[in-house]
Amino acid sequence: MTAFQIILMGLLIVCAVSVSFSKNLLNAILIYMSFSLVMSMLWICLESPDLAITEAAVGAGITSVLFFVTLKKIHAIDASEPDTKEEKENE
Amino acid sequence: MSKKKTAEEYQKTFAFRFFRWLSGEKDPYSGEVEMQPQKEYRPDPEAALRREKEHDAIMDKVYDTEHNKWMHLFHRLYQTTSILFCLFLIALLLVTVSYLPAIGTVTRPVNNEVSERYIEKGLEETGAINIVAGMILDYRAFDTLGESHVLFVATITVLILLRLNKTEKDEAEVNDRRFEPKNDAILQLVATFLVPVIIIFGIYIILNGHLGPGGGFSGGAVIGAGLVLYLNAFGFKKTERFFTEKTYKWVCFFSLSFYCLAKSYSFYTGANQLHSVIPKGTPGTILSSGLILPLNIAVGLVVACTIYAFYAMFRKGGF
Fold this sequence. Notes:
By secondary structure, chain A is mostly helical. Helix content of chain A is 81%, strand content 0%. Chain A has one domain (3-77). Chain A has 4 helices and no strands.
């Protein structure tokens, strides 16, 4: 295993953990997108370019676009800072 | 010969009434069942106050964690058990991983006669240079057929969940792009250059599925992404010139039924040791490897249309 692969795997773990800790839904989707991109690079390192193409097209492209549309539908994109909003409501 | 009825006789039959009800000409209950006018809603202030008091009392009693000992205990127990469960799960998975054989060893259970056969005889039997394409579209084409059907069923389910009726559809169309620039010049210019390239790249991936990495699913996803970009740049009016719900239905129907028929033929001839009329061709050229190329095209069409359909239904609940 080369150093490049180890860095990519570390990035995967960082992405996976930070998705679950990010409070902003838009950020979560962007991190999820980068997770898919890193994963597709790893697939190329594991010598399976078939999977890499599919992962890049479906994981990073289509799925996140569908997530964006859903966020827009439920008007969650405009609420950019949930923390400050909650504080205001508490006051 | 059936007896011909006069118009008056026909009006007394059940069929006449049924079809009249079906077409909505006459409501059978109008004029026969009396409807009382609905009372105006008046909130009762006393009842509301009473409800509020009860609610407060319940909240005080149950959710007063500082004084409710059982609640306190339960929360503690809940937290500790959840942490313990997570740790247990992590330990279990790590222990399981430690029992897996290392990558690249000869004694792995994956290295059995099945994969040997695929690698040694794959080129000869399927004619595909890309072993993966030979596997998924020839040896295991039945699985891929199931996958295509799963995609189709998923679209139908989304259609059922997100479908709107006519008036709602018009409203959704108006609301859809209210807060966006309608004709974004930058996006349109970029799309005019990028969309043809993306779609041609997708077609290349599909057509070269049996020669190199790629295939129907990934190529179809790339084409679908190109269509989504085009839709975002130019709006629904432009895409509806060439892609409507009808197009989607027919493309999916023809692709899936072609896949079924072609694979049924090859399964039939294979199982009965008959000679298949489909030529294998010379390996390495585009027109080779028998059924894999047309099957790839069919899968790609289904996937591209499905992705576009998903996006259109998420956007406005229809095409």
